[in-house]
Design goal:
Elements lengths: L3 E3 L3 H11 L5 H19 L5 E7 L4 E7 L5 E6 L2 H11 L4 E9 L6 E7 L8 E5 L2 E2 L3 H11 L5 E5 L2 E2 L1 H10 L5 E3 L1 E2 L2 E2 L5 E2 L5 H6 L3
Parallel strand pairs: 1-11, 4-5, 4-7, 7-9, 8-10, 9-11, 10-12
Antiparallel strand pairs: 2-3, 5-6, 13-14
Helix pairs in contact: 1-2, 2-3
The protein binds uracil.
The site of uracil (URA) has 10 residues, from α6.
Length: 209
């Protein structure tokens, strides 16, 4: 699986295991996702372009590094993407935010768009799409397809968990988009859920079940 970055840092793996437990409360599930998202942000922004600027310290003037270019865009796939967005914004507070509303048709499992709102000048921006579960891959493929219409400089995809089916679907459609994930689980079931997985991420983040 090329272009897949498995974030196997012990802190990420430990927190993910705690999230998988079916008796994890909504509060702790959300907090853990928030913490993992900060750590994932660290990995996915590792190659951000830098530039030198002049800075006056109390002692002398120096050339120091800052992030170069237009502000990054974090694109959340609603609604579960919000769970990752919050943690990432803690680490990259200046990022712009876009939202894509997609729901899964329960019969066909295909993605249907109901909302799309992005910042301006997307052609000058790097984009990180976030959604906790890359399952069938249909939502991710549709989201990236839609974003490519705006011609951003680059697109990366960050999830918490995926499975072989999701990775294959995404990579067939968008081989140029790297996937960052904390785990690749065994398989997808016939209802489009990842096994062993962690259940419905949206319901667990928002306590809706
Ligand atoms: N979405 C989820 O929330 N969980 C899965 O297992 C698959 C898709």
């Amino acid at each position: 699986m090329s272009n897949v970055h498995l974030v196997d840092h012990p802190l990420v793996q430990h927190k993910l295991t705690l999230m998988r437990r079916k008796d994890a409360s909504t509060n702790s599930f959300r907090r853990l996702l928030n913490e993992i998202s900060m750590l994932m942000a660290y990995e996915v922004t590792r190659d951000m372009p830098m530039q030198d600027i002049e800075v006056e310290t109390p002692l002398e003037t120096m050339q120091a590094k800052v992030i170069d270019g237009k502000k990054l865009v974090l694109v959340s796939i609603l609604r579960a993407g919000t769970g990752i967005l919050d943690g990432m914004l803690t680490v990259v507070p200046g990022a712009r935010v876009g939202h894509i509303g997609l729901y899964r048709d329960p019969k066909t499992l295909t993605a249907v768009e109901y909302y799309f709102k992005m910042p301006g000048e997307m052609e000058n921006r790097d984009v990180i799409v976030v959604d906790p579960m890359l399952a069938t891959g249909n939502s991710a493929v549709a989201a990236v397809e839609r974003l490519k219409e705006l011609n951003p400089k680059s697109i990366k995809f960050v999830c918490l968990l995926t499975c072989p089916e999701g990775v294959v679907t995404m990579q067939k459609a968008h081989p140029d988009v790297p996937i960052y994930t904390a785990a690749i689980d065994r398989e997808l079931n016939s209802h489009g859920y990842i096994l062993p997985g962690l259940g419905d991420a949206g319901d667990r983040i928002f306590g809706t079940k």
